[in-house]
From TrEMBL:
Protein name according to UniProt: Xylulose kinase
Active site, renumbered: 235
PANTHER family, per the entry: SUGAR KINASE, XYLULOSE KINASE
Function: Catalyzes the phosphorylation of D-xylulose to D-xylulose 5-phosphate.
Upper taxonomic lineage: Bacteria, Pseudomonadati, Pseudomonadota, Alphaproteobacteria, Rhodobacterales
Family designation: Belongs to the FGGY kinase family.
Native organism: Halocynthiibacter halioticoli
Length: 484
């Protein structure tokens, strides 16, 4: 048996799978995010441990015999977080999360420093780990002075599980301390930001052993034999393992809290100025590129909360089929934006509101704004030489037929919808554990899900959506010019 842990921003999902990757059970536990100031986003790592204990306790109750036969654990986690521990392994401050943008000044300084883009293959975004730690150095020097290790969120959870400091290539690639082409920490980039290699965890590939489950935990959970904990990976890389996306030309679009358009790559081919992320995959000798928008379903959640409704209720007002773009434009920059703007200060806007605007009009505008932002991501990926012909849709937003059809039309490519079932990051984590324990080839374990339906672009509406997209593209520089 194998566990896949998916450490998300708002909760932990744990799945129990057999050696074929068939999921037998799944449990979830949720926690909160703290926003003390504008641009701040923090979490207490103890919440991750509490969530893990809660889900394992539930699995032990429902599947005691299966859990007792556990052989391996894989972990997926939200990237870029800064979890700072002292020499005794104690967390010194709340973890600064991926969508924490307070370090915009430090990020800009690093990004302007020779070597960062060239070695890391990426812009230094405010959400990345290195500028966050630099912010701590500038604002909390007493904490910075005591840093023994900087751990990414899933690697702190692994530390609790194993008592050992390990990380993996795919997660480390999002720190701005990593040589993504060489798949190793960069001593030069560490030195330029006042850090040392010994303050980083040792690195392994996603399916390689990264410690053994502590005996005390194994006993508490009723596990009979030794359990290996593998490297795991950053959430998008591990989600790609869950949907079989690791060969050149494979891709997926994720309509989750954030929005992602990801393409697997068989070589390292960065283009930092595009604001496309170029990271190591969780599979050896493989990379991926992705465009990221900071708010996708988060935009719908915000709108629903503001209107006193629920996202599904708002979506239902639009039906299942698109009929063309609306008259209102929405810029989905609730928390700033990454691809293609790298702008932590820009904020969301509605353009074209009138006295007759309805809830349905606002919902359509929000969905279109997210779709157009993902079109921005596609254009950025194209500029690097990436060529996607079709993608798989995952994430909560993919449950909306209207939104998926709109996205297929805006991106001008077929979108495959998988059959209902468990897949994604939790399954990908379990698959990495299976490969690590059994030595199976990734391609034999990390197969794609069966496609339930393919949604094709509505060609007769393409011209109208292209025209609306061009208007959308013109809005960012215009809004930026008056909000500096």
């Amino acid at each position: 048996m194998y566990l896949g842990l998916d450490l998300g921003t708002s909760g932990l999902r744990t799945v129990l799978a057999d050696a074929s990757g068939q999921i037998l059970a799944s449990e979830e536990a949720h926690y909160d995010v703290s926003h003390l100031h504008s641009g701040w986003s923090e979490q207490d790592p103890q919440e991750w441990i509490n969530a893990c204990e809660k889900t394992i306790t539930a699995l032990r109750k429902s599947h005691p015999k299966e859990l007792a036969a556990l052989k391996g654990i894989g972990i997926s986690g939200h990237m870029h977080g800064a979890t700072l521990v002292d020499a005794s392994g104690e967390v010194m401050r709340p973890c600064m999360l991926w969508n924490d943008t307070r370090s915009a000044k430090e990020a800009a300084e690093f990004d302007a420093t020779e070597g960062f883009r060239e070695i890391s293959g990426n812009i230094v975004f405010p959400g990345f780990t290195a500028p966050k730690v630099a912010w701590v150095a500038n604002n909390e020097p007493e904490v910075f002075a005591k840093i023994h290790k900087v751990l990414l969120p899933k690697d702190y959870l692994r530390y609790w599980l194993t008592g050992e400091y390990f990380g993996d290539m795919s997660d480390a690639a999002g720190t701005s301390w990593f040589d993504v082409g060489a798949r190793d920490w960069s001593d030069e980039l560490l030195a330029k930001s006042g850090m040392r290699r010994d303050q980083m965890p040792d690195l392994v590939e996603g399916s390689a052993p990264a410690g053994m489950l502590r005996a005390a935990l194994a006993s508490d959970w009723g596990i009979e034999g030794p359990v290996v904990c593998v490297g795991g990976g950053g959430d998008n890389a591990v989600a790609a393992c869950g949907v079989g996306c690791f060969s050149e030309g494979d891709g997926f679009v994720s309509l989750g809290t954030s929005g992602v358009l990801l393409a697997a790559k068989d070589r390292f081919s960065p283009k930092p100025e595009s604001a496309v992320h170029t990271f190591c995959h969780a599979i050896p000798d493989t990379w991926y590129q992705m465009g990221v928008i900071l708010a996708a379903t988060d935009c719908m959640n915000w709108l629903a909360k503001t209107l006193g409704s629920k996202p599904a209720e708002l979506s239902a007002q639009l039906g299942d089929t698109i009929s063309g773009p609306g008259s209102i434009q929405f810029l989905p920059y609730l928390s700033g934006e990454r691809t293609p703007h790298n702008d932590s200060t820009i904020r969301a806007s509605f353009i074209g509101l009138s006295v007759g605007t309805t809830h349905a009009d606002l919902t359509q505008a929000v969905m279109e704004g997210v779709a157009f932002a993902l079109r921005d991501n596609l254009e950025a990926l194209k500029s690097t030489g990436t060529d996607l012909k079709r993608v798989l849709a995952i994430g909560g937003g993919s449950a909306s037929p209207y939104w998926v059809e709109m996205l297929a039309t805006v991106l001008d490519m077929p979108i495959d919808l998988p059959e209902a079932g468990d897949f994604g990051a939790a399954l990908g984590a379990a698959r990495l554990a299976i490969v690590g324990d059994t030595g199976a080839a990734p391609k034999d374990i990390m197969t794609g899900p069966k496609v339930a339906k393919t949604v094709n672009p509505r060609k007769e509406l393409s011209a109208a959506y292209n025209e609306a997209y061009e208007t959308y593209r013109a809005l960012y520089p215009a809004i930026k010019a008056i909000t500096k």
